[in-house]
Design a protein that fits this description.
This protein has 14 helices and 14 strands. The protein is of the alpha/beta class and 378 residues long. The chain has two domains: 199 residues, Rossmann fold, CATH 3.40.50.2000; 157 residues, Rossmann fold (3-Layer(aba) Sandwich), CATH 3.40.50. The strands form two sheets. Strands 3-4-2-1-5-6-7-8 form an eight-stranded mixed sheet, with helices on both faces. Helix 3 links the parallel strand 5 and strand 6. Helix 3 runs parallel beside helix 4 and helix 6 crosses helix 11.
Amino acid sequence: MRIAIVVPGGVHRSGEYRVIPALLALITRLSRQNDVQVIALNQEPRAGEWDLAGARIHNIGRPHTGLRALIAIYRLHRRSPFDVVHAIWSGTCGLVALIAGKVLRIPSLVHVAGGELTAIPDIAYGGARTWQGRLRESFVLRRVSMVTAASAPVIAVLARHAISAHRVPLGVDLTIWPPREPIRRDHKRPARLIHVASINRVKDQTMLLLTLAALTKSGTSFVMDFVGEDTLHGEMQALTEQLRLSEVVNFHGFLTQRQLRPLVEAADLMVLSSRHETGPLTVLEAAVAGVPTVGTRVGHLAEWAPSAALSVPIGDWARLAAAVRRLLDDDELRMSLAREAQQRATREDAEHTAARFRGLYARLLETSPVARVKLCKK
């Protein structure tokens, strides 16, 4: 099978920096038995090509990215026909996949992987904030051959728009991120908390720092590690000083997967404060490493609570602080959540993701007019 995968980025030629681990895991597995050509819209400003994860990466760059992506897919199809075109993320990626599929008369899939259907006006986040965005998503998602999403909350949003979708979590690569048995907390030392996410408005680290301030006032002893690229130019570090948390909060910036794993293993809890998530992968990685998550009711946390995670309403720092204290005081509950979360994350790992997508491709090809013509010719 020859597959065109359309992505905004996450496939940097280094394989370590500016990459999306779950995306690389998927590409690696699909490439084992298929010819995979990845169309990266904006990995780099200039056009270029390289090999990564068993696939050929075609970076489109600027300007006129969408049009040039369609031309690139058409030319690749002329050399050797694609069987399916698959967008990871909707938005421009989804629109490119839809048009390419219609022009080439092949099935098209869109995996909703971000805030395409979300509108959070106060932080200018989400594809549904404008009528143009809402129109684009309605146009694309109602016309592609199939829609998928990572978690039940996103499937529910799609259903409210009368769009049927399949749940396909983007799982962890267990060969790179192997499972580790959950470990009991050492109450003789401060609790170790970790937060892994880019520092930005939608991840709401302001709410998380207010949570930490509440923990400090309650007498909870802890250390918090923040891991992720800072897109707010030191704003959270300044708030940390203002809240007098500098002695218990460490900002590490971006870390590679190899650098991140020891910090996750040292943690007692992953803490999530996002206002929106479709997954996220960091919750799955922590679960595989034997570390449970407490956080806002988004993505996998909305699915897993209360048996595999604890969740609180978005923006409610007081309840999040109470939930963190509860788990730090009740190690039996923390261990129970960790074990259940690990079972779920390992059951839906990267191999599961690739197998699900291969099955969906096969289902689409069975009903594809072009596929039926090929079968008839045989």
